[in-house]
Amino acid sequence: MKLAGAEAVRYFSKPDPAKAGILIFGSDAMRVALRRQEVIAALLGPNGEAEMRMTRMSGADLRKNEGLALDAMREQGFFPGQRVVFVEEATDTAAPGLTHALKAWRPGDAHIVVTGGELKGKSALKSLFEANPLTYAVGLYDDPPSREEIESLLSRAGLRSIDPQAMTDLVALSRAIDPGDFRQTLEKISLYKHGDATPLTASEVDLMAPATIEAGVDEVLMAAADGRDADVARLMRRLEGQGVNAVTLCIGALRHFRVLHGAAVSPDSLQKAWGVPFKAKEAMGRQASRWGERRLEDALRQLIETDMTLRSSSKAPTLAVMERTLLRLAKMV
């Protein structure tokens, strides 16, 4: 059976041990791994792995020996309690072995947890778990986590009291960084707020947010939007030394100027914009007012043209093309 959305989020934290198993797949390996860890921890409890109630194998192992999953599923351990057979990096070549195991599954057998990468619509592995009434298949796609997912993560991190603006910023942060970094940020926040009954504030979220190479990208984009062309040239030299990709920089610029355009049309939209650091919102609000709607539309047209050039077969040095566009934008202010 298929699981998606809020229903899947609830199931991850409270899987049904009376079911035979679950397949979790998607192109983002970190996101898949985090959900797999959550499901297995909920099934086994805190001592499951120490009590050797989990058997781990790869999809390649199962391809070589189709009986592995069935044998592991039927094994009886020394310690009582729920058992799990975890099959990682499974592809369609693991489907025959899992088919045998699921056909033979009976209540009391181990729960089968399978993870895989991006699976096609007609994938044999995906079809196997979707068609069986005793199993679930969950596809994790590149969509940002929902508010319910974030609230679930916050609850498990021990955070109960949160200012509305802090929640808005956490939603934005979750869309700007990868799931592993976001989970670590929540853990950092929970340690910071441990024993503190006051609500989590937006400034505290900003304080705990990770610093990455994006900070350098944001810096040059802020310089361009502020009209500081000398700083644009200087910062571009630094980014070039760090190996920043021109297309990545252009995507960031498009995002930045789209946020400014949205703020020029509707100032309230800036507070809800994803990927905008708390400290940058006031400065970007001033930028939006200074640029105005029409000039921002012109800036976006230039950035779209640059993006097309960067992705074309042009022989022009890509970072030089991007720098020229940013300098042109800086001179528009």
From TrEMBL:
Provide the top EC class. transferase
Q: Catalysed reaction per UniProt?
A: DNA(n) + a 2'-deoxyribonucleoside 5'-triphosphate = DNA(n+1) + diphosphate
Instruction: Print the keywords alphabetically.
Output: DNA replication, DNA-directed DNA polymerase, Nucleotidyltransferase, Transferase
Task: Please name the InterPro entries in this protein's record.
Answer: DNA_pol3_clamp-load_cplx_C (IPR008921), DNA_polIII_delta (IPR005790), P-loop_NTPase (IPR027417)
| Annotated Gene Ontology cellular component terms | DNA polymerase III complex
Its BP terms in the Gene Ontology are: DNA-templated DNA replication
EC annotation from Swiss-Prot or TrEMBL:
2.7.7.7
Looking at the keywords, is Transferase present? yes
Q: Does the keyword Signal apply?
A: no
Q: Name one GO molecular function term.
A: DNA binding
Q: Which domain of life is it from?
A: Bacteria
Its family?
Answer: Belongs to the DNA polymerase HolA subunit family.
Q: What is this protein called?
A: DNA-directed DNA polymerase
Protein's organism? Neogemmobacter tilapiae
